[in-house]
Amino acid sequence: RKEVEQDPGPFNVPEGATVAFNCTYSNSASQSFFWYRQDCRKEPKLLMSVYSSGNEDGRFTAQLNRASQYISLLIRDSKLSDSATYLCVVKAGGGADGLTFGKGTHLIIQP
Amino acid sequence: NAGVTQTPKFQVLKTGQSMTLQCAQDMNHEYMSWYRQDPGMGLRLIHYSVGAGITDQGEVPNGYNVSRSTTEDFPLRLLSAAPSQTSVYFCASRIQGAREQYFGPGTRLTVT
């Protein structure tokens, strides 16, 4: 079983719609969770951390379900500029790195 | 601050050649790491360092060497390039224990 699994997409979504992605992780000892955004041929950049109580940053909402070991990202009122690949990242406790990246979900916002 | 810089941006090597990918950061971050990203794969950790003089292997270290003589620099050496090392290489850094990791712009390497 892959450590961090994501639907690769692509998700084709009209501008202004709401879109949600999920990600599942296999290591129950994982302690930190993140969503990174990667534009085509660019480096990944942190979009937001994911906290147990759920958190929101503008149009973006992240949720964590530890019992089911999944993380979600919701984008409301999607913009053309939201088109990118969204990487789910999980960090296990201990060790110097411990970051495990999902393969990413490709989102295309259509005008 | 320039952040994390990588050189070169693009490189083509022949099988068996060696080269060094350069990475530097000016944020005084203790932690630095190298990843490779292949189509259909997530980023995979090659080597990492928690400070000057300290390095350790990641998930896919074979064929690569690193050193960390200063806080700022973390070069990645390919000893004898193979076509399987064709990939995009990202260097990253962060403050030890911090949540956010900063990535460089990447080096696109092709081995023929």
Largest interface: A-B, 20 and 22 residues
Instruction: Give the mean pLDDT of chain A.
Output: 91
Pick out the low-confidence regions of chain B.
Answer: none
Report the sheet with the most strands of chain A, covering strand number, pairing sense and barrel closure: 6 strands, mixed
* Proportion of residues in extended strands of chain A: over 45%
Unreliable spans of chain A are none
Quickly give the structural class of chain A: mainly beta
Choose one word for the global shape of chain A.
globular
Structural class of chain B: mainly beta
Radius of gyration of chain B: 13 Å
Roughly how much helix do the residues of chain B carry, as a percent range? under 10%
Number of helices of chain B: 0
H/E order of the elements of chain B? EEEEEEEEEEE
How many runs of DSSP E, i.e. beta strands of chain B? 11
- Helical coverage of chain A, percent range: under 10%
Assembly classification = heterodimer
Helix and strand topology:
The complex is a heterodimer of chains A (111) and B (112).
Chain A: E1 4-6, E2 11-14, E3 19-25, E4 30-38, E5 44-50, E6 55-57, E7 60-65, E8 70-75, E9 84-92, E10 99-101, E11 105-110
Parallel strand pairs in A: 2-11
Antiparallel strand pairs in A: 1-3, 3-8, 4-5, 4-9, 6-7, 7-8, 9-10, 9-11
Chain B: E1 4-7, E2 10-13, E3 19-25, E4 31-37, E5 44-51, E6 54-57, E7 64-66, E8 76-78, E9 87-94, E10 102-103, E11 107-111
Parallel strand pairs in B: 2-11
Antiparallel strand pairs in B: 1-3, 3-8, 4-5, 4-9, 5-6, 7-8, 9-10, 9-11
Structure in a nutshell:
The complex is a heterodimer of chains A (111) and B (112). By secondary structure, chain A is an all-beta fold. Helix content of chain A is 0%, strand content 57%.
What can you see in these coordinates?
- The complex is a heterodimer of chains A (111) and B (112).
- In chain A, a hairpin with a 2-residue loop joins β6 (55-57) and β7.
- Chain A contains no helices and eleven strands.
- The model of chain A has no long low-confidence stretch (mean pLDDT 91).
- With 111 residues, chain A is an all-beta fold.
- In chain A, strands 2, 4, 5, 9, 10 and 11 form a six-stranded mixed sheet that branches. A five-stranded antiparallel sheet of chain A has the order 1-3-8-7-6, with no helix packed on it.
- Chain A has strands spanning 4-6, 11-14, 19-25, 30-38, 44-50, 55-57, 60-65, 70-75, 84-92, 99-101, 105-110.
- Chain B is globular.
- The model of chain B has no long low-confidence stretch (mean pLDDT 94).
- By secondary structure, chain B is an all-beta fold.
- Helix content of chain B is 0%, strand content 49%.
